[in-house]
Design brief:
- With 207 residues, the protein is α+β, with helices and mostly antiparallel strands.
- The protein has 2 helices and 8 strands; from the N terminus they run H-H-E-E-E-E-E-E-E-E.
- The strands form 2 sheets. Strands 1, 2, 3, 4, 5 and 8 form a 6-stranded antiparallel sheet that branches. The protein has a two-stranded antiparallel ribbon with strand order 6-7.
Length: 207
Amino acid sequence: MKKLQKGFTLIELMIVVAIIGILAALAIPNFIKFQARSKQSEAKANLKAAFTAMKAYYQEKDQYSLVAGVVGFVPERNNRYTYWLDKVGTASNRSAATETGIALASGIGADTMKGYVSQTYAPSQCTGTGVLDAGAYADANLTEQWTGFAMGNVDGDTDIDRWSISTGSRVFPDPPTATCTYQGPTAAGATLGANAGGEPANDHNDV
C-alpha cells in the first residue's frame, strides 16, 4: 500500500501568512520608531559637548563666542543633525572629506558626504521668553546665558527633529508637544517639566 503524504492545506497556509502579516504590521512601525529614537542620542551627546565647550570658553574669556571653531566645538563626522550656536551666520560644509568654513561658522553642517541633509536654521517652535533663538541672551536676572540648537531628520519624513540646550534653567512641557510652551526660570506657578542648565530638551519630537 502507498502511504499518503501529509502536507498543509491551502487554508492553513493562508492562516499562517495572515498571522505573519499581522505580526509584521505591529512590529515594523515599533522597530522604526525605536530606531529613530536611538538616532536622537547623537543630538543629546553633541549638544552636551557644545555646552561644555561654551562653559569652558566663558570661564577663560568671561564671554560667549558663537563661532564653533573658536570655542572648540567640532563634533565627529557622520552627523545627521545640523548644530547651531547662533541664529545668524552659516554652518560649516561637510560635503567633502575635508570640512570647510569651520573657522567662521556659527554652526556645524550635517555630514552631506554621508547622505544626510543639512538643515537651514529656524527658531524654536516653543513660545515664551529667552530660548526662542540660538545665541547669547540675558535671563530674567540679567545674567548672560547661551542657547544652542540641533536640527535633523531622523525618520525620513518632512518633519524635523529639534533639540536645544541652554546654560540657564528652563521650563518645558513633559513630554514635549508639537508646539511647546516655554516659561522662564522665574515664572510664578510654573507647573511644566523643569529643564536644568546643560540638559538637552526636545523642542519638537519627530519620532
